[in-house]
Write a structure and sequence with these properties.
thiosulfate-cyanide sulfurtransferase activity, Rhodanese-like_dom, Sulfurtransferase, 10 helices, four-stranded parallel sheet, Oxidized Rhodanese, domain 1, alpha/beta, five-stranded parallel sheet, single chain, transferase, Thiosulfate_sulfurtransferase, 2 domains
Length: 280
């Protein structure tokens, strides 16, 4: 399973080889059903502040959600909390993980990014192409909850991660070899964005009918139009670092080699009094 974003058919054929993580709310996992063998790890459980972002597909609330510790961790839950969460789910450090949600993959992508930042091998982290609504059209679901023994998951953050701080982002705005990408909706971008940023709503890369990614050629065309090229350093931000998780995962899937993840995002940028640009 070499791709970062994997088709449902391939996952269905390998359910006994991977750990499936369902990032929907617990009531959805229990009441609606889930992918066989999945474990429930709701979005709020790996978020530092569950009130920081709205859980709808449309957007995130700007403002006061992110941590103001100055450590660049943004909305990450903390190493000990994440280790305990993974241990409780029975996930081992060397497990191959496939995550999904029912919101085109944006919450599942956030889980994968969090796992990568805490040291899980990124080559063993995968996003289900499509979401639960797409899966259930062609594949089996269940209401039976699989039982897993508690593991001893150890967090070991790598020496280098894609995380960048606010000063690095400010410097990137003047770098001709870097593209700063705002993954929010058009109206949010127009109200205020980091100067020089290019807008790419994360949903532009998703097919509303299949609920998975658009065809690769179509995605590459969209990225090319915005100047988001593989030979550039790409710095991603949104409001509270949820939506950039999906775009980051897609760009990794496409083989972009130099990606930066601004975890503080616009929440931190505004709180620090940095300049905003308005308009389309």
């Amino acid at each position: 399973m070499s791709e970062i974003v994997v088709p449902a058919d391939r996952v269905a054929d390998r359910l006994d080889e991977v750990r499936i993580v369902d990032t929907r709310d617990a009531w959805e996992f229990e009441g609606i059903g889930h992918v066989p063998g999945a474990v429930s790890v709701p979005f709020d459980s790996f978020r530092a502040d569950e009130h920081a972002a709205e859980d709808g597909a449309g957007g995130e609330s700007g403002g006061s959600g992110a941590e103001e510790s100055g450590d660049g961790q943004g909305m990450l839950p903390g190493a000990d909390a994440f280790a305990d969460l993974m241990s409780e789910a029975g996930i081992e450090n060397d497990d191959r993980i496939v995550a999904y949600d029912d919101t085109h993959g944006v919450f599942a992508a956030r889980f994968l990014v969090t796992a990568e930042l805490y040291g899980h091998d990124p080559e063993r982290l995968h996003l289900l192409d499509g979401d639960f609504s797409a899966w259930r059209l062609d594949h089996e679901t269940t209401s039976e909850v699989a039982e897993f023994e508690r593991s001893t998951y150890e967090v070991d953050p790598p020496a280098e991660t894609p995380l960048v701080g606010i000063d690095a982002v400010a410097s990137a705005t003047d770098d001709p070899d870097t593209v700063v990408v705002d993954t929010r909706e058009a109206w949010e971008f127009e109200e205020g964005h980091i100067p020089g940023a290019v807008r790419l709503d994360w949903r532009e890369l998703v097919d509303d009918e299949t609920r998975g990614l658009k065809p690769r050629a179509e995605i590459e065309s969209i990225l090319d139009e915005r100047g988001i090229a593989p030979d550039k350093r790409i710095v991603l931000y949104c409001n509270t670092a949820r939506r950039i998780s999906h775009t980051y995962t897609v760009l990794r899937h496409l083989g972009y080699p130099d990606l930066a993840f601004y975890e503080g995002s616009l929440t931190e940028w505004e709180a620090d009094g940095r300049e905003l640009e308005t308009g389309a």
